[in-house]
Every structure is written in C-alpha cells, then in structure tokens.
C-alpha cells in the first residue's frame, strides 16, 4: 500500500504537469466544446495515451484501500469496512471521471471534426453533460469526498495510536480535500482547491512512507494500550 501510494503520487505529479503544458489542464475544463475538442484531437495518440494512463492512476486507490485494511485493525471491523469502502469508492469514481477524456470526449472530438456544423450543437450538449455528470459530480465531487473520508479515518487511527503529529496533518488533509470538493459549487473555495492540488501528492507520499514504517503491534502492546 505504501509503495503504491508513493508511485501513484509521483506519477500524478508527472502526468498533471504534462497535461498542464500540452493541454492547458485543468483550466481547459472551463472552456467550451468548440475549443476543447479540437485541442484534444490535435494532441493525437500520445495525448490520448496519457489520458488513459492518468485515468488508471486512481485504480491504485482501490488496491491501497484493500491492502491497508489491516492497518485499521485495532479500530474495529466497522471502521475498517468504512475505510476500505471509502477509498475503493474514491478510486472507482475518479477513474470513471477521468476515463471519459480518451473515450467519450475523444469520440466527440472525432465527430466534431468530421461532421457538419449542424451537428455541433448536439455534440456540445453531450460534451457538457459528460463533463457535468462524469467529471464534476462523479469524478471530482464523489471521488474527492470519499477520499476526504478516508483521510479522516486514517487521521483518527493515528490519533488512537498516540501519533498526534500525523493525526493533525491527516485531519487537515481531510478538511482541505473535503472543502476542495465543493469548488464546482462554491467559487470561493477555488484557492483552497489549488492549495489541495499542491499538497495532496505530498501528503500521499508521506502517508506511503508512514505505511512502510508501520509495525503491527504485539498482543501485549495492544492489551496494554486497551488497559
């Protein structure tokens, strides 16, 4: 779990930087279909491949959610189930949101280029709908709220183990992620969203290191802690 968090976070930084330079991401999300679809197609197979790779990165969350289940063992079966479910849901939602670019949006871009201008209104409606439902709602809002919940449960587990520093950072990361998830609803949180984009991979890398350094407590230590 720690290794996957670190590798996926570094890959996220690399892919995000590439898309920012080659596609104007994420600012391009605010543009109209008439600008975005031709730009997507102009990127060719290389840009499409990068989008597929980007969409695959959140699948790492699915693995981490399952692989880190034992880490929550001391907190009880119910909390462990919530933690696994939250991160698995986050990974699935984010992948669904991102994979629309090399699939649905790519097909729309091809149709936009090949079809007559009379079809552009319908294509733009499909483009807007996919962005709103798969992108803004499923991928960003649902995915990020579930990720924030996982951060909160991680922080709570750190707190129970007496690791107050990690717990504090975890609670802050959870709050930052939760607030950032509302950027498409409340424009005032846009600066918080930008801060979250910068801090998120750093927190995931740090958390991956923490997982590497984790030792399962012995029975006597667990009993002593309960006493």
Explain what you see.
The chain is mainly α and 227 residues long. Helix content is 79%, strand content 0%. It is built from ten helices and no strands. α3 (44-56) packs antiparallel against α5 (77-98), α5 packs antiparallel against α7 (120-160) and α7 runs antiparallel to α8. The protein is elongated. Mean pLDDT is 90; it is low at 217-227.
Number of strands: 0
Please give the largest β-sheet: none
Broad structural category: mainly alpha
Tally of individual helices: 10
Mean pLDDT: 90
Question: Low-confidence parts, pLDDT < 50 over ≥5 residues?
Answer: 217-227
What oligomeric assembly is this protein in? Answer: single chain
Distance between the ends: 30 Å
**What is the approximate shape?**
elongated
How large is the share of residues in beta strands? under 5%
Cα Rg: 20 Å
Helix content: over 70%
Q: What is the H/E string?
A: HHHHHHHHHH
Secondary-structure topology with pairs:
Blueprint (H helix, E strand, L loop, with lengths): L1 H22 L9 H10 L1 H13 L2 H9 L9 H22 L2 H14 L5 H41 L3 H17 L9 H23 L6 H8 L1
Give a brief description.
It is built from 10 helices and no strands. It has 227 residues and is mainly alpha-helical. The chain is elongated.
């Amino acid at each position: 779990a720690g290794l996957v968090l670190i590798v996926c976070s570094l890959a996220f930084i690399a892919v995000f930087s590439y898309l920012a330079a080659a596609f104007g991401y994420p600012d391009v999300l605010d543009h109209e279909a008439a600008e975005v679809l031709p730009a997507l197609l102009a990127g060719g197979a290389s840009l499409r491949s990068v989008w597929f790779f980007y969409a695959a990165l959140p699948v790492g969350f699915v693995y981490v959610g399952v692989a880190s289940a034992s880490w929550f063992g001391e907190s009880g079966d119910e909390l462990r189930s919530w933690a696994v479910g939250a991160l698995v849901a986050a990974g699935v939602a984010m992948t669904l949101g991102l994979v629309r670019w090399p699939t649905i949006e790519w097909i729309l871009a091809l149709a936009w280029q090949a079809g007559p201008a009379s079809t552009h209104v319908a294509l733009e409606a499909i483009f807007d709908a996919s962005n709103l439902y798969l992108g803004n709602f499923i991928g960003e809002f649902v995915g990020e709220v579930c990720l924030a919940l996982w951060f909160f449960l991680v922080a709570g587990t750190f707190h129970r183990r007496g690791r107050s520093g990690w717990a504090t950072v975890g609670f802050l990361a959870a709050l930052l992620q939760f607030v950032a998830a509302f950027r498409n609803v409340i424009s005032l949180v846009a600066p918080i969203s930008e801060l979250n984009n910068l801090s998120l991979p750093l927190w995931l890398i740090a958390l991956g290191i923490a997982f590497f350094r984790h030792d399962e407590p012995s029975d006597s230590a667990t009993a002593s802690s309960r006493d």
